[in-house]
Write a structure and sequence with these properties.
By secondary structure, the protein is α+β, with helices and mostly antiparallel strands. The protein contains 9 helices and 8 strands. It starts with a helix and ends with a helix. Zinc ion binds at residues 21, 29, 31, 33, 36, 38-39, 42.
């Protein structure tokens, strides 16, 4: 596939591709600056894809930039052990991974609504804020960068909630501001009664709905805090031995235009 097709092909997966200086057949950088210190690895401005067709910049390379739907985690060689550990601990699912320059790995995730923390995820691991050289760009040693798991091989993975809590860096809101959200969580939790095979399935559903609910709230709660709030609220319900639907939840349900069935009372009545 030609380089110009790669730009469009990757865009088709929601990845933001941008032109990058590449390497000419004689091994020099397309910027033609004598003594360029980042041969084939720096931004190329004033470029449009049409220029490929016109035969201009035939050796341009490709970089991937963070965009609304996609976050790119760079794992350097030093970060590989830490990455394996994170993967194991948080059950990170299969997602797109590319080889980057200098032996790094580029791991792609669905970008959460919150901006991810600027602090690294661990030694040698950080979310990219700037564009980064991507496959199939040419390296100075003549090899091309390659996908390890390409976008056409699996769906773009998400960052597990348990990890988001750690890597999002939003100031916590006072609990008082969270009461409406908490009522909503209780409402959704009870509304899911009997609809899931596992407690985890029920919680995931509550979390998903709460994230949507939270998007309309102003100011909204960070996704990490939201995860905690859902967990705490559900734990609170479980600790009180699953009491019948609380009056507040019924009131909350009416507030959000929903109805709520008191399954426990039904169950008892059926005995
Ligand atoms: Zn250059």
């Amino acid at each position: 596939m030609s380089m110009s097709k790669w730009f469009k092909h990757l865009q088709g997966f929601g990845v933001k591709t941008i032109p990058w200086h590449g390497i000419k057949p004689d091994g020099s950088c397309t910027c033609s600056i004598r003594g360029c210190v980042n041969v084939g690895d720096h931004p190329l401005s004033g470029f449009s894809l049409g220029m490929f067709d016109e035969g201009k910049w035939p050796y341009a390379s490709i970089a991937i930039d963070a965009c609304e739907g996609v976050a790119v985690l760079e794992v350097t060689k030093d970060g590989r052990d830490g990455w394996s550990e994170l993967k194991e601990r948080h059950g990170i699912k299969k997602t797109w991974v590319a080889k980057g320059s200098n032996g790094s790995w580029l791991v792609f995730f669905k970008r959460p609504t919150d901006l991810l923390s600027v602090r690294p995820w661990g030694n040698g691991m950080s979310i990219r804020r700037d564009p980064i050289l991507a496959p199939p760009s040419l390296l100075p040693d003549g090899k091309r960068l390659q996908w390890i798991v390409a976008p056409w091989e699996c769906k773009l993975g998400s960052i597990p909630g348990s990890l988001l809590v750690i890597v999002t860096n939003q100031a916590r809101q006072p609990m008082g501001d969270q009461s409406a959200t908490q009522e909503y969580i209780k409402f959704v939790y009870w509304a899911q009664e009997g609809k899931h095979d596992s407690a985890k399935g029920r919680m995931d559903c509550v979390l998903k709905k709460t994230i949507n609910f939270n998007k309309d709230n102003c100011p909204s709660i960070s996704e990490g805090d939201l995860y905690n709030l859902v967990e705490e609220t559900i734990q609170g319900i479980l600790d009180s031995n699953l009491p019948p639907v609380p009056q507040q939840a019924i009131e909350a349900a009416s507030l959000f235009g929903g109805e709520i069935a008191d399954h426990l009372t039904y169950r008892e009545a059926g005995k």
